[in-house]
Each structure stands twice: as structure tokens, then as C-alpha cells.
Amino acid sequence: MTAVTARETAVTSADIRKRGRLVFVATIIILCAWVLAPIYLLAINALSSPEQVNAFPKSFVPGFETDSIAFFMGFAGVARALFNSVLVAGITMALSIGLGAPAGYALSRFDFRGKDAFRIMVLMTRAFPLPLLALPLAVMFIRTGLDDTALGLALVHTTLALPFAVLITFSLFAGIPVELEEAAWTLGCTRLQAFYKVVLPLVLPGIAASAVFAFVISWNEVFAAAVLTIENRTLTAFLLQNINVSPMHLKFAGGAVLVVPALIFIFAVRKYLFAMWGIANR
Amino acid sequence: MAEISIRNVAKQFGDFTALHSVDLTVADQEFMVLLGASGCGKTTLLRIIAGLETPSRGEVWIGGKRVDHLPPRQRGIAMVFQNYAVFPHLTVFENIAFGLRMQKLPRAEVDRRVTRTAELMHIGQLLKRYSGQLSGGQRQRVAVARALAMEPDVILMDEPLSNLDALLRLEMRAELKGVLAESKTTTIYVTHDQVEAMSLADRIAVMDKGRIVQAERPIEVYRNPAARFVGSFIGNPPMNFLPAKKGANGSWRVAGVTFEGPRAEREEIAFAIRPEDLSPSEGGLPAEVRVVEPLGPHVLVTCDVEGHLFRAVLDSDIVLSRGDTVKLAPTPDRIRWFDPETEKSLQHHQ
Fold first, then answer.
1. For B324-338, b where at least 16 C-beta lie within 10 A, e where not — what string?
2. How many domains does chain B have?
3. What sequence ranges are listed for the domain ABC transporter (chain B) (predicted)?
4. Are B161 and B46 in contact (CB under 8 A)?
5. ipTM, two decimals
6. Most CB within 10 Å of its CB: which of A183, A227, B24, B239?
7. What would the pLDDT profile of B30-78 be if each residue is shown by its tens digit?
8. pLDDT tens-digit profile of A89-98?
9. Which residue, among B87, B103, B162, B163, would best test binding to A if mutated, counting the most A CBs under 10 Å from its CB?
């Protein structure tokens, strides 16, 4: 009697566990599909010939035609826009790390008045909607001659990327015990020597990751790029301007060219991004 | 030759005074232990000597040279940290060689010193490993080897054994003592562990609330505490204290028993005796037994003497149980007296 009941209970709980697992797996599939399906469609269409793109029903296997991509890359202005994108993102990356890393180091190592306020202010800069700033910025840039230049746009992108650079490098440096530096000092190092002999090798992978992150922020940014540049458009702004009047297959090709580098970069540094957001990666 | 002299050193962190005007001289090749509870200022003092902290006031002299304005690298010191501070991106070899390379020593000399100190610390077989591949005890050995390889005049150690488990700590303690005695350096060692302090030190400087209360040989500190704090901090179980009322002819009455005591212009002073200096005897202090704990060689008896907690370590032959009354007589030359207000010893000669 009791044995039977026990078996029944066992069966029921196993059943519940099984159902729970089903829900879990289904959720994961939906979440993955949410992200992957658009990327997949983008990839298929970018790699298909114009006929296949416009055909119905759609094939789920790409035609592996590079005509669209080739045509897109050969389209007047694309190469230049791509170059501008890389240039702006490169300057943004250099400025964000150049300014952000020292700030992160200072936050992690020194106690100074207004430290907490500073940290909050750094985050608060992200609370300003860019559209609100764009017009005054455009006016100011025209006055100072920064309008329509890579440097001008990179400055705006730096303000977007800098808070992340500061907070990410802060947590990187905070993760290095101060005793390591102190030990280096007692072993004959100056402050600077201790920094580049002990701290830098330990944080370099993380710094590289946050640099790539800054690069991607700039690469993906479209609003400021569209408002502040006319001749020297970045790829995003260029696409925004031209894509509405382009045929379907070119839209897909342009989208793929934008998405793929960002995806590759983020994938390359995913481990550090997880670490930065406080998710255990070990 | 490296005598360390700390003169009138004080340290303030905002409103908090970590050190009040500390004076201490450590002789060449002496092993000095700074002992105290956490927050007593012992680590701050060590860090001031190392140059990792600047004193608010006072001077630090090492080997006849004033160093308090110098950065750590120019003080001729090496330091061992509580969390080891072994560089994770370098091998054990490179960790030990780190300071030597900073001095730009020739390669052969670096190799020789690294090998020798690694052998000394029994980590010769680990030289190619990284710190992530080492146990806590091995990391500690690397940290000590790294300090010894510098052949410094002074080694500063900040609770180096406190992160090790109990058995390993015992082993490393004996080893450290041997190695440091051989290396002929002056050592300042910070700990909160009185057993560590007693076993390692040539002299113990007991610290309390940012002051050095007593700095003497371990047995002196144990036998003749300069202040009530020292008696209650050192010794396990610690010293017993009872109030003593002034009697006739310079005698003092403690729990109904009369003792010869010091001359003092006070109506009440504190009587003190270590638990192991008591034996059951007629005419002793009347104690009511509360707890009996057999410890093997001895039995620890916790009693009540006129409402005061009183512990005795007695011979294990004795048969006692809760509620018994026992007369505990102190060994006369081990009785100590303390001033209740200044808390200082009443016969200490320093």
C-alpha cells in the first residue's frame, strides 16, 4: 500500500520535473529565436540573388550568391562611409580608453571627496537623450568647425562610450588587489613601474575588451552620425539616408555589413563583457 | 646593520587617531612582534615603517638613516603581506626574481639567489608554476622567498600566517623562525595571535588603542604585564583579576583573605593572578566551582569568587564538580597588582 503510494508520488514529481524542464527548454528556444531569427533572415537574404530575395515562398537555404554584397560594396560612397565608420570608431575607442581608464584607476585606488557623486554623474550622462543634445551640439560644432568631421562625431560617440569605459575599467582595477602594487613598490618599483609591470599585464585583456565595446558603440550609433555629418557620413548614417530608396536585396546586404562586424567583435570579447557585468564566467 | 627607530610617530585618519605618539627601537637582527587586537594600530605602524603609509607626525629611522620621507623602494626593506600578494601573471621563479631584476643584478646572480631561497623555502620544484596552481601554504612560501631573495636589512611581515589552516600555521611558524634567524635580518612581525608572538619573538610590543603598552621579552610580558590590558590579552585563559581593599599595615584584603601588597595611596586596587599559579590549599581564596573542563594534562576550573569570574588551571588528579567550594591559594611571588584607574602595574619597574 505504502509502496504503491510512494511510487505514485515519485511518478508525479518526476512528471512535474519533466514539464518544468519542457517550459525551461521552450523559453530558451524562444529567446534564442528572438535574437537569431532576424540575423538568420538577414544572412540568407544578403547571400541570395535579388530574384530569390523577392521570390515567395522563401527558401530557408541561402543561395550563396555574393552579388548583392558585391554590388553593395561597389555602390558609390559605401567604401568611404565604411572608412569613416572605422575612423570614427577608432578615435572613439582611443579617447574612451585614454580618458576612461585613468578615471577608472583613480576611482578604484584613491579616496577623494565626491567620489560617489562622480560615479553617479558618470552614469547620469547616459540619462540625457541624445536627440535633446543633437541640435545644440550641431550648432556648436558648426561654430567651432567640428561639424561634418570624424573627430567631431568621435567626440560625441566618446561621451556615449566613456561612462562604460570608466565603470568597466573601474571594476577591472578594483579586482586587482592593491597589495600587488604595494608589493611591487617594496620590491623596488616606482608607482609607474608597478603599474606597467604588475597592474597592466593583469588588466590588459579587460581593457582590450572595453576598447572593443567602445568601438562597437560608435559603430552602431546612428542618430548623432546622421545629424552631425553630411559629407563624411558613417556607414550607419549613409545607410539610413540611402536605404529607403534602395531595392530590397541591397537593404539586406547593407544590414549584414553593419551587423556582422559588431557581432564578431562582441563574440570575441564576450567573456570579458560577462565578467564586467558581474556574471560569473568561471 | 639595521636598527629601526621609531620616534614619536602618530597617525591620524580624519578624526580617528590610529597611532598616538609611538616610540620603539628594534635592535639589529632582532625579531620584534607587534601584538594586539584588530584595530590597535599594529598594521598601520608596520605600513608606516614600510613607507606604504605616511605618518602624521614623527620620524622613522632605519640603519641610522631617516627614511620617513622616502618611498618604500629606497628603505632597504622587504615585506610579506597577509594575502601573500604573489603576482599572478608571473611564474614562481619570476616572482622571486622580481625585486632582483628591478635592481638589475646580473643574470647569474639572479639565478643563484632565486634557486637558493627557493631551496630554503622548499619550493624548488615549483619554480615554473603560476600562483593559481599553488596552495595557500605554497603561496606563502613564495612570498617569503621573494622577500628573502632581496637580502634586505629589514623584513616586515603583516600577519603572514593568518590565512593558513591551523596545522600548516604551526609548521610554517617553526620554519619561519629558523629561516629568519639564519638570514640575520631585523624582523618586524605583526600578529594578533599571542601564541605566534610568544613563540617567535625576541621581544613583543603589545599594542592597544594606538599605543605600545609594553615592549619586552615574551616571558617578561607574560609574567610581569605592565598593564592590566596585557595580562588580560596574553595568556589562555587570561589573568584573573579581583578587587583588593586596603587593610591594616599595608596589607590588602582580597575576598576575605589578607595579602602583603604594594604601598599605594588608594582604598582599592586590583589583585591579579594567572590561572596556572593557583593550587588548592587551606587559607586560599574561596571559590565556588561553576564549570570543570578536563584538558588532559590539566583541568580548567571556572569558578565564582565573590561574584567575579575566576579561572584556575589545576592538576588533573583533582576531583571537583559543579557547586563545590574550593580554596585556591596563589603562588605568592606570582601575584601582581594593578592600579584600577591608570590600569598600570603597581610594581612594574619600567
1. eebebbbeeeebbbb
2. 2
3. 4-234
4. no
5. 0.85
6. A183
7. 999 999 998 899 999 999 999 999 999 999 999 999 999 999 999 989 9
8. 999 999 999 9
9. B87
